[in-house]
Amino acid sequence: MKRAIGIDIGGTKIAAGIISDTGGLLERAEVKSDPSDRENMFARVAEAVEQVLEKSDLSMDDMEGIGVGVPGKVDQEKGIAVFQNNLPWQQFPITASLEERFGTKLITIDNDVYMAAFAEWKAAQVKNDETFVYVTVSTGISCSVIHKGSFFRGAGFAGELGLIPVLSHGANERLEKVASGPGIQELAQKSLKLGAISTKKVFASYLKGKQEFGPVIDEVANTLAQGLYAISSILDPHKLVFGGSVIVNNPFLLELVKEKLKVYQLPEQQHLLGQMSISTLKQDNGIIGAGWRVFERL
Fold first, then answer.
1. What is the fold of 126-279?
2. Matching InterPro entries, A to Z (predicted)?
């Protein structure tokens, strides 16, 4: 069995795992991020790798390589984290830094959503002639498209679903502002005139039957459906999988979104409703995808 390290880097945490060549997660470790400066942040990445190796009683010599998912824009060829809005890593040489620290020469990097999408695409066993879309709804909203086995990247910034304008309470807003985790908090605070409230509590209150939270969740479902209708109309994908804490932790939301989306769709588009599902890999899809990508390079 071949093994690789997968790393999923975020603004609040870094997860590292040992992944088999069949996509199995053999070991996992997680540390808090330190975005105070670029070197401190990299030190935490290295710590996550060292922890997962220690837990597994394996060494880097037992690994085929390292795969890394980084938020924002990356330069795959040069191995550089180009820009992230939640990390101090503008133009950071992540590949060279990992090579120097761990000695491995096979390192692949990509945007974190693309890494997660790769894992979901492999897990879903999508046919090579089909179009697959992965959508993450979490702190932000984004998507990745795999068409006929290859990523669609555009000029390098494709998949920013959260930037699409949607109609919310009579005004045009970016989808991410009203349907991401922070957006849901803000929507509840403004609509219900509340103080600070977590996204988790918004959903919990709705599930407990507190009627005042009904319109908030309805608005979230409606705006998500608007964004997804753009995907349905432009790409007409064969399969769509959701990830990210907002929808993974609240799976009932998918059915609400499908009800809203059906209203927008023509009958010829509604095949997608039966091909929309929530990730079974959940919060590990980023590290699994990152590690799995290493074997594509062998």
1. Nucleotidyltransferase; domain 5 (3.30.420)
2. ATPase_NBD (IPR043129), ROK (IPR000600)
Average pLDDT per run of 10 along the chain, which is 298 residues long? 96 95 97 95 98 97 97 93 90 97 95 96 94 95 96 89 95 96 96 94 97 98 98 98 96 98 98 97 94 92
Phi, psi of 142 (to 5 degrees): -155, 170
Q: CATH number of the domain at 3-117+284-296, please?
A: 3.30.420.40
